[in-house]
Every structure is written in C-alpha cells, then in structure tokens.
C-alpha cells in the first residue's frame, strides 16, 4: 500500500473524520492579509508574533516537505444547555490542543506515533501553519464566509490537526470552492458583537473568544452587554449557519463527564474561583488559554451582569470586597450596576 494511503487509513482508524496531504510553503497572501488588518495587531506586531510565524511555514521549517491534515469532529455530543451557553463546543468537547493524557490528546498522540512507526519524521506543534488554509489545500475541508472549515459530517464543528513532515508525500486535490449558498450571510447577522463585517473578514478584537482571553489593552468593554453569558468562546456564527443544519440536527450521544459538570457548573463559583473549583470544573473544559484566575473571575462577573437575575447581587458584592484587582473590580461594579438598574426598572 502507498505510504499516503497507510497514513489516511491510520488516521481514520483512530477516529479522525478526514485525512489529507498538502505541500509545505510560505503563505504570502495570508501574511499580507493579516498585516493589512489593524485589529490583528496583537498577533502580528513583531516578527515573532503568532500569525507572522505561522505564515512563514517553509522559511521557519526548511526541512518540512508536506503537511498531514486531519479533522476531528465534535458535532455528535448532546451539549448540556447551561454549559454551552457559557463555553463554546470546541472546548466542551476537549478536542482543541488537549493534554497528551486526555481522551483526544491520546488519540492525537496515537496518530503521531503511528506516523513515526511508518518511518516519518513529524512535528507535533499545532501552531506552525494557518490550519484552515492548509486543510483546504489538503482537500479535507471547504471554507465558509464565517471563516470556518467545514466537513460534510460535522459541518464546522471540527478541530483541525496538522503535522509537518520532512517526507515529500503525494499531495491531495485542494478543495478551495466555497459551498455557502450564494445569497447567504446569516453568520454576519448572527454575530452578537458584530465581529464579522464581510465574508471572511473578522474584526478580531470584537470576537468574544478574543475578549474572554485577556484584559485590556486588546479587550473591549463596550461589547460586554453583547457577550451575554459567554465566558470561554462563542458558537453563534456556527449555530446560525445552514451548512451546519444537518450536523446540529443529527442524533446525539451523551457525554457522561459533561453530564457531571452540568450539575456543578455555577457562574457564581467561577466569580469566586478557588483552587479546587478551578481544578475540578473550570480547567477540564477551559484549559486552553487563560492562566490568570482573575480573567475567569472578570468573565463570570460580566456573565452574571448579563443574567438579568438580581439574586446574583450578594455574590457580586462579596466578590467586589474580596478583590483589589482593578480590571476585575471594574467588571463587577458594571455587573452590580446593571442588575440594580434592572431591579429598579422592574419595581
Ligand atoms: C488566532 C486564532 C484565533 C483568533 C483569531 C481568529 C481568526 N479567525 O483569525 C481568535 C482568538 C479570535 C480565535 C477565535 C476562534 N477560534 Co481560533 N484560531 C486561531 C489560529 C491560531 C490562527 C487563525 C488565523 O490564522 N487567523 C488569521 C485569519 C486571517 O485566518 P483565518 O480566519 O483562519 O482565515 C480565514 C479568512 O481570514 C480567510 N483568509 C485567509 N487569507 C485571506 C486572504 C484574503 C485576501 C481574504 C479576503 C481572506 C483570507 O480565509 C481563511 C479561512 O476561511 C487557528 C489555528 C491555526 N494554527 O491556524 C485557530 C482556529 C482558526 N480557531 C478555531 C476555533 C475553533 C475558534 C473559535 C470557533 C473558538 C470559539 N468557539 O470561540 C473562534 C472562532 C472565530 C472565527 N469566527 O473565526 C479552529 C477553527 C476550526 C474550524 N473548523 O474552522 C482553529 C483552526 C484551531 C483548530 N486547530 O482547529 N481564533
Ligand atoms: S465566534 Fe461569536 S463573536 Fe466570534 S465571530 Fe463568531 S459569532 Fe462573532
Ligand atoms: S451562514 Fe451562510 S454565509 Fe455564513 S458560513 Fe454559513 S452558509 Fe456561509
């Protein structure tokens, strides 16, 4: 069997939905595009910034010849409503950059090891190539106007996994065609913070996930109301998409761990985050970016302020007394004011 076919079989056997191969090169058009977008400055301002590094795949990885691209679907899970209101599905599914000893981390690691057993030298780093573009070039996804990479089975609810290799493998046919209906722009209208301003043009600093990840500078407090209950990512531009209709309405399976978390998840406990709650409830589904507990506390304060439920006022007042960290105090004070104003309007 050709090595390319062995690679694909190994990935499919391990539960990836598609596996394909593309040649490695620099992404000059992509680099020009990200540099032309002022809102991308947090990820482009220096030569070493993330998006400038991933644009120069070949220059920075001169021995790499091919990229093996795989998709890991997560549309089949029944996401409990209280969790998916606050945490995006990519994180609840624990498919994005999972630790090696977690379910999907072990799956990704098993694929990496089977590639090595075939004699390939591979790079496990997931941040050395623009993955959506690489996966379209490898023929495993098509792209949407909301920027997402789609597969027929899972729509956009899939995580992309890529391995650079020094072997020159036969590439697959790219799938550059856009399969969005001609007159559709539902994703643009669905974005609560108006972050998608045109087809394939995201105003990154208005995207909720970006704002969930950091304090100012970068994060924008004028979108707090629109952020709703979301403390770690957002799925609205995917939920509105007709290309996801089949995946969203297909039969679902219960994820027993999420069923446990759904009973334990409590925004007040995130607001008053302690180590044990972080370890048992927060970290398992939000391990990706946020290392500063105060960012979680700030996110929870905004969500509680948007809950419309004055029953959260005592917890917010307690949390205000408990912290002298300015950006957290600012969000808590905002939330208290918002809930108090709501109470007055109702009275
Ligand atoms: C930086 C980053 C972010 C940033 C910026 C997002 C962005 N769209 O730029 C922030 C923090 C906001 C973010 C948010 C999210 N992210 Co993110 N992110 C990345 C990362 C590391 C790089 C993305 C990137 O290159 N951005 C730069 C822009 C230009 O690239 P892009 O949006 O991918 O490119 C599209 C368009 O800009 C356009 N394009 C590219 N070049 C050009 C040139 C021209 C001229 C034009 C007009 C267009 C165009 O085509 C691309 C494909 O549609 C990738 C992982 C990786 N290594 O690639 C994950 C990745 C894109 N993220 C992912 C996810 C899941 C998310 C979230 C859904 C999480 C969530 N639920 O909240 C959101 C979705 C936001 C969105 N609508 O795109 C997945 C997407 C999977 C998929 N099926 O598409 C990726 C691929 C990670 C992975 N391994 O699977 N992310
Ligand atoms: S992920 Fe949410 S905030 Fe970001 S572009 Fe999509 S709908 Fe807008
Ligand atoms: S909502 Fe419409 S335009 Fe946006 S990605 Fe889906 S099909 Fe394409």
Q: With helices defined by DSSP (H or I, 4 residues minimum), what is the helix count?
A: 18
Separation of the first and last Cα atoms: 74 Å
Strand order of the largest sheet: 1-2-6-3
- The helix fraction, in percent, is 40-55%
Average per-residue pLDDT, rounded, comes to 97
Category from helices, strands and their pairing: alpha+beta
Q: Summarize the main sheet.
A: 4 strands, antiparallel
Number of strands: 8
The proportion of residues in beta strands is 5-15%
Helix/strand order: HEHHHEHHHEHEEEHEEHHHHHHHHH
Produce the secondary structure layout.
Layout: H1 3-13, E1 18-23, H2 28-35, H3 50-55, H4 57-60, E2 66-73, H5 81-84, H6 89-92, H7 103-117, E3 122-123, H8 131-137, E4 142-143, E5 149-150, E6 158-165, H9 186-190, E7 196-198, E8 201-202, H10 208-213, H11 236-239, H12 245-249, H13 256-264, H14 267-271, H15 275-285, H16 293-305, H17 313-322, H18 326-346
Antiparallel strand pairs: 1-2, 2-6, 3-6, 4-5, 7-8
The site of cobalamin has 35 residues, from α2, α3, α8, β6 and α10.
Name some characteristics of this structure.
binds iron/sulfur cluster; 4-stranded antiparallel sheet; two-stranded antiparallel ribbon; binds cobalamin; 347 residues; alpha+beta; Leucine-rich Repeat Variant; single chain
Task: Explain what this protein looks like in three dimensions.
A hairpin with a 5-residue loop joins strand 4 and strand 5. 43% of the residues lie in helices and 10% in strands. The mean pLDDT is 97. The radius of gyration is 21 Å and the shape is globular. It is of the alpha+beta class and 347 residues long. Helix 16 runs parallel beside helix 18. Among the domains are: 3-165, no CATH class; 266-342, Leucine-rich Repeat Variant (Alpha Horseshoe). The protein contains 18 helices and eight strands. The protein has helices spanning 3-13, 28-35, 50-55, 57-60, 81-84, 89-92, 103-117, 131-137, 186-190, 208-213, 236-239, 245-249, 256-264, 267-271, 275-285, 293-305, 313-322, 326-346; strands spanning 18-23, 66-73, 122-123, 142-143, 149-150, 158-165, 196-198, 201-202. The structure holds cobalamin and iron/sulfur cluster (2 copies). Cobalamin is lined by residues 29-30, 33-34, 43, 51, 54, 88, 90, 96, 126-127, 130-133, 143, 146-149, 156, 158-160, 200, 202, 204, 207, 209-210, 233-235, 237.
